[in-house]
Amino acid sequence: MKLKFAIICTSLYAGALAVSPLAAAQTEAASTTSANPLAQADRDFVQAASMSSSTEIDAAKLATKHSQDKDVKSFAHHMMLDHTKLTVQLKMAAPHGVTVPKDNSDTELIGSLSKLNNKAFDKEYITKVGLEGHKEAVAAFEKEIANGQDAKLKKAAQDALPTIQKHYQMAQDLAAKKGVSE
Description:
Order of helices and strands: HHHHHH
CATH class: Mainly Alpha
Number of strands: 0
Helix content: over 70%
CATH superfamily: Ferritin, core subunit, four-helix bundle
Shape: elongated
CATH topology: Ferritin
Structural class: mainly alpha
Radius of gyration: 16 Å
Distance between the termini: 38 Å
Number of helices: 6
Number of domains: 1
Largest sheet: none
């Protein structure tokens, strides 16, 4: 019960802090201090993982407004909860002195999705966010596991990879159900 409450509170907190993705002209980049340099592979992972989760959360919020499909909305709700949790885990795994970007969405993708509604939205959301986004995320997490130098970030990637792979499978199942090709 405490875990469920914590997840709900984290989701509400993340939602309250979220800035409109269209208002963000630039995405933030993972940064380090001179006291704690991070290997390039680890910086790339922090950037990719934070952008993936931020985009998932913002796109899921759009799905609640732009889709009429209960399956798409259910998928989006699941993505919002899991990616909020993954963002918290990434921040906890980041070494002291490493800034994990807060609102790091793919503004071009979010902007294009925000112009669509109903079935047109559903198709793009499933294709771009569900399928392509999770395929790229799986690759980024696997790359960190193989090439990362920071033990805590590698462990976070290992722990999160099954969830990201499950999301990709869920997106594939949703695409098949809705007749959306990869």
